Each structure stands twice: as C-alpha cells, then as structure tokens.
Amino acid sequence: MFYLSVPPNVFIDVVKCASKSASSLNGWTRVIVEKPFGRDSESSAALTRNLKQYLEEDQIFRIDHYLGKELVENLSVLRFSNLVFEPLWSRQYIRNVQLIFSEDFGTEGRGGYFDNYGIIRDIMQNHLLQILALFAMETPVSLDAEDIRNEKVKVLRCMKPLLLDDVVIGQYKSHSKGGISYPAYIDDKTVPNDSLTPTFAAAAIFINNARWDGVPFLMKAGKALNTKGAQIRVQFRHVPGNLYKKSFGTDLDRATNELVIRVQPDEAIYLKINNKMPGLGMRLDRSNLNLHYAARYSKEIPDAYERLLLDAIEGERRLFIRSDELDAAWALFTPLLKELEENKIVPELYPFGSRGPVGAHYLAAKYNVRWGDLSAEH
Ligand SMILES: NC(=O)C1=CN([C@@H]2O[C@H](COP(=O)(O)OP(=O)(O)OC[C@H]3O[C@@H](n4cnc5c(N)ncnc54)[C@H](OP(=O)(O)O)[C@@H]3O)[C@@H](O)[C@H]2O)C=CC1
Ligand SMILES: O=C1O[C@H](COP(=O)(O)O)[C@@H](O)[C@H](O)[C@H]1O
C-alpha cells in the first residue's frame, strides 16, 4: 500500500514508478491519495485520467479524513436505525440544515498551500459536502461500499451548482486583543500581500429532489475565528397550531426542535426540546436530550486516519471517494470558483478571532435562517 503524502505535482510520477517497479505480483497494490484532487472539474478529471493509466479505480483510495470521524460515521446509524429520525428526514419536517466548520487559528506557515486553494476547496467542496451527501442521501440498498457511494452520487447530482448570490467570502485581518496582536492572512510570509483567497466562506445549497426541495443547506467554514469545531445542525419546522405559542413570545424559531451533531471537539449528539419548568406555574424551558460521548463511553475515540488506514488495508472502500463522486462534487463548485477568480471578487475582511463576516448573517437571513452556533444557548 502506498500513501501519497507528497505534493500533488508528483502524484503521477510516484504512481507511475510504484506501479512499474513496486507493485505486488501476487497480492494487492493500493494507493491512498490525499487531497487536493485537482483545483476544479478539468484538473480533477485530468488527475483521475492520469492515475488510471497506472491503476484501476478499485486500487485508488481517495481519502477525505472527515469521513473517518466518529460522528460522521454515526450519521447513517442515527438516521437508518432509529425510527424517530428517518420519518422526519425531509422537507416536511426540516426547515434548514447547517454544516459548520471553524478553526481558531490561521494558516500559520501553510499559506503557500492554502493560497492556491482557499477555504472553499480546502473544506467545503470535500469535507462539508461529503457530510451533506451522507446526511441527505436516500436509503442505500445495503451497507456495501458501492451501494452507499451510488446514493451519495445521486444526491450530489441533484444539487444545484452554487450561485455567487448564495455565497459570502471573507478573509481574516489582523486584530489585537488583551495586548496580543494576531496577524492578518496576508501577513503570512508565504501569501502574496494582494491575495484575494478566501479564508472564510458561507454558502446556501439546494437539493432538487422530492425529499429536499426548497430546504436550504447552509455551509460555513472559516479559519481564524473565535472557536474551533465542526457540527451539523438540523432545525425542524414550527409545531403547527402550537398550544403553547404564547409562552414563546414572538420568537417561534426559538421553540423549534434542533438536532445537533457535534463532530468535534467533545463529541455529542443532542436534541433541543421544549419542556415545562418544574413548579406550580406553567413556564416553559428549553433542554437538551444529550448523548455526550465522554460521559457515555470511557473508550478513546479513534483518530479519523486510524480508521481510514485500517479500512484501506482491509480493502473497505465505503469511506473513500469514488471518481464519479468527485466529478459530481467539482461540478457543483467549479462555476462558482471560476466566477470568484475571474471577477476577482474581494472577500469581506473579518478580525482574527471574530465570528466571521457579517455577510454570513445576511445570507442566512435571506432564507429565514439563523446560524445555530451563534445563538445564546447553542
Ligand atoms: N499540510 C497540510 O495541511 C495539508 C496537506 N495535504 C496533502 O497532504 C499531503 C502531504 O502534505 P505535506 O506534508 O504538507 O506536504 P509537503 O509538501 O511538506 O511534502 C511531503 C513529502 O513529500 C516529499 N516530496 C516533496 N517533493 C517531492 C518530490 N519531488 N519527489 C518525492 N518526494 C517529494 C517530501 O520529502 P522530503 O522531506 O524528502 O523533501 C515530504 O516528505 C499532500 O498531498 C498535500 O497536498 C492536504 C491538505 C492539507
Ligand atoms: O483537510 C484539512 O483539514 C484540516 C482540519 O482537520 P481537523 O481534523 O483538524 O478538523 C484543516 O486545518 C486543513 O486546512 C484542511 O486542509
């Protein structure tokens, strides 16, 4: 097994040499490829074409380490093995879904790699989109790798390519707090000082199928923000004819159920519900039904790469990206990326350590959504 932890410009040479001089004669030869799998549809297709000169598709293991994270693996279990969730998993009950990634540090010396890609290619087109595909796909025929990947491809193909109007980009600027000064993205020595590369992006994605028609899937990813984490938030619709409407005042959104899958840190799955506060009066409260992993399990959660490497050794392809999945993913983002770059769209600056550009709030508001991670009681 070869793990290509090398710069992408040497992928093909390494694969060529490995397949000609070091492939197994009587066992198997597999190659794990790290992202970036190209920069857009064309370069990704060229990379696949070149790899396939030397390898069959089933020898190529394209890694997306988010698929190896415990709570991303658990997504299908949650959906397909609990009667209470699957019937609610559609436009009928779900108002919006949010996929949120944040880091509280900047590019810190990795700007050379990052500046050529930006946050949309670094996080959204792969990690967040993969989670979205698993979240939104139809029930697969079985847990077999091909059955699951078939469903992921189908749902990716139902998504509408992203529109510039549904995207906000940002870039962090320097900021001083408590006597400490935090650098701007362009202060990174490996980044050109006129770089327009986004370090933050928010986007609204729609899925053109019977299950999800009209439901906004909002993605948000950023570096140098106020927190580090990754989460999936599912905001359910209002209760029709709610008998307790008066108790919620004018803000009915606060009263809707929300399912939160906290991928990291401090893994948890919790459901926000309304309940009566104990006492003689009738006052309502919001509480969490909480599966908190650290409290429930004493066993350490394996690192995503541990799981994925073990799967590759065992020939299990379920958590690796098939070439048609990759094509479908690039088809969604390539027109947007081209438009951003050709028109030199200027990112909105946000201070290092902040909650990101205000544009992200306007984007959410356009679809009557509030980011769940920014609410007072998230
Ligand atoms: N670092 C990151 O944050 C991220 C990395 N990745 C991907 O992960 C992989 C590894 O990243 P990273 O460790 O940062 O990469 P580096 O650029 O630091 O290179 C990793 C290795 O590649 C070897 N290498 C470089 N050039 C050649 C060459 N011409 N021929 C043979 N070997 C070469 C280097 O060997 P030597 O030390 O001998 O020079 C080094 O061991 C890459 O595919 C990258 O795209 C993806 C996302 C983020
Ligand atoms: O692939 C990448 O992921 C890391 C974040 O991974 P995590 O497991 O620490 O959440 C990100 O920092 C990097 O920019 C990106 O290339």
Describe what you observe in this structure.
The chain is built from ten helices and 14 strands. With 378 residues, the chain is α/β, with parallel strands linked by helices. It has a single domain (66-301, 345-374), classed as Dihydrodipicolinate Reductase, domain 2. The strands form three sheets. A nine-stranded mixed beta sheet has the order 13-12-11-10-4-9-8-5-14, sandwiched between helices. Strands 1-2-3 form a three-stranded parallel beta sheet, covered by helices on one side. A hairpin with a 7-residue loop joins strand 12 (268-276) and strand 13 (284-292). Helix 5 crosses helix 6 (145-158). Bound molecules: NADPH dihydro-nicotinamide-adenine-dinucleotide phosphate and the ligand O=C1O[C@H](COP(=O)(O)O)[C@@H](O)[C@H](O)[C@H]1O.
- DSSP, total strands: 14
> How many domain modules?
1
Look at the structure and name the CATH superfamily.
Answer: Dihydrodipicolinate Reductase, domain 2
Specify the number of helices: 10
Tell me, what is the CATH class? Alpha Beta
Please write the string of helix (H) and strand (E) elements.
Answer: EHEHEHEHHHEEEEEEEEEHHHEH
Spans of 5+ residues with little confidence (pLDDT < 50)?
A: none
In what range is the share of β-strand residues? 15-25%
CATH architecture: 2-Layer Sandwich
Instruction: Give the strand order, joined by hyphens, for the main sheet.
Output: 13-12-11-10-4-9-8-5-14
Give the CATH topology.
Dihydrodipicolinate Reductase, domain 2
Describe the main β-sheet briefly.
Answer: 9 strands, mixed
Structural class: alpha/beta
Separation, N- and C-terminal Cα atoms? 43 Å
Bound molecules: NADPH dihydro-nicotinamide-adenine-dinucleotide phosphate, the ligand O=C1O[C@H](COP(=O)(O)O)[C@@H](O)[C@H](O)[C@H]1O
Helix content: 25-40%
Shape: globular
Mean pLDDT: 95
